[in-house]
Design a protein that fits this description.
By secondary structure, the protein is of the alpha+beta class. The chain is 53% helix and 36% strand. Strands 1-2 form a two-stranded antiparallel sheet. Helix 1 runs antiparallel to helix 2.
Length: 70
Amino acid sequence: MVAGAILVVLGLIGLAIPIVTTQQTRDVAKIGDLRIQTTENTSHTIPPLLSGGVLALGVVLVGAGFFQRR
């Protein structure tokens, strides 16, 4: 039942925020104490079908846990 609740929350977050952006800083060149760095932004898209599937699976698991306790 707890795993189902976690999946429900993850599915809702995936539907609410479909694009996640990450940043990575790298050293491009290093000469003595001088460093030249670059920051790369990468966008990751979460498909709505995947988020909906995770949400549905979570609801099924919560429902199964609820009926199993009866």
